[in-house]
């Protein structure tokens, strides 16, 4: 039987994205196209994503991005087997744009619709890129989420921990703002930290002594702010040292928590080899990646970090989640609703 082709649409934050992905009967995936238009420029002057502007930009660009995804895949939209779109969680105006477009295409083409949970799409990406088999532990670290999820199967998720305040990417972004490094902050902090001394400031490692698998980053962010305020005006070396010391604290927290989570995996699923899958924009950070690899090595776990373009928001992950659900015969009606909040 021919592999199934799914169009995926992602509009839940500041990426307008569409992709066509294949999935064969054995579960092997392939990316035919993956087109992403980032709205960085629209939001740059505001130092963060403005929901209303994001929704309007999705309306302006989505049709063209979908047409481009079809062109790059060398397919007509009428040739796909299903239309998938992120239906939440996310900025609701943007989600509505993508989901409504998907409904219109599904209705016009007479194809099934799959309403995808954005977190599920992140969670399943490593199966597309690396053929990872269930079960595995996913660490999602993005601008909106920081959580551990045990992935037992498609639709079978167990959250083991999350953040009680800021997401990790959000902490990077706020620290970058404090240090006037621009938006998005993560890559800027990482670059600046290269010239800094990670040991100069002993920033706190919140919650680290507790056994629970939750994160907290707001105390760390506040400590960084107080240190920066104390030293005004900041020299370039101060800025680099603060960035490096912040990143070291973040790596310490994420690495330690991940080791604890993998130990729990070993204890609770002794019959399965421990596997760690990382998703979200922060996974692009080399120091964070190194901390995660060290945590995996310490617990004898396999670690999979998909390429950065598939860790950050994209259409391929949505198309793939749609293909995985389609293969199980799970589709949605045209009356499915968009959900601003939608925990796994
Ligand atoms: O997954 P993503 O593209 O969007 C969502 O939030 O869903 O993640 C974006 C986040 C931003 O907070 C950004 O600052 C962070 O990922 N990020 C990084 C790096 N690249 C992106 N954080 C640290 N180091 C990086 N190299
Ligand atoms: Zn995301």
Class computed from helices, strands and strand pairing: alpha/beta
Q: Over the alpha carbons, how many angstroms does the gyration radius reach?
A: 20 Å
Please list the strands of the largest sheet in the order they lie side by side. 3-2-1-4-5
Number of alpha- plus pi-helical segments:
11
User: What percent of residues are in strands?
Assistant: 15-25%
Q: Ligands bound here?
A: 5'-O-[(R)-(carboxyoxy)(hydroxy)phosphoryl]adenosine, zinc ion
The CATH class label of the largest domain is Alpha Beta
Provide the low-confidence segments as ranges.
Answer: none
Oligomer: single chain
Q: Level of helix content?
A: 40-55%
CATH architectural arrangement of the largest domain: 2-Layer Sandwich
Supply the CATH superfamily name of the largest domain: ATPase, nucleotide binding domain
Shape: globular
- The count of β-strands is 10
Largest sheet: 5 strands, mixed
- Termini separation comes to 32 Å
Return the string of H and E elements.
EEEHHEHEHEEEHHHHEHEHH
Instruction: Indicate how many domains the architecture comprises.
Output: 2
The overall average pLDDT, rounded, is: 96
CATH topology of the largest domain: Nucleotidyltransferase, domain 5
Enzyme class: transferase
Cofactor: Fe(2+)
Catalytic activity: L-threonylcarbamoyladenylate + adenosine(37) in tRNA = N(6)-L-threonylcarbamoyladenosine(37) in tRNA + AMP + H(+)
Protein name: tRNA N6-adenosine threonylcarbamoyltransferase
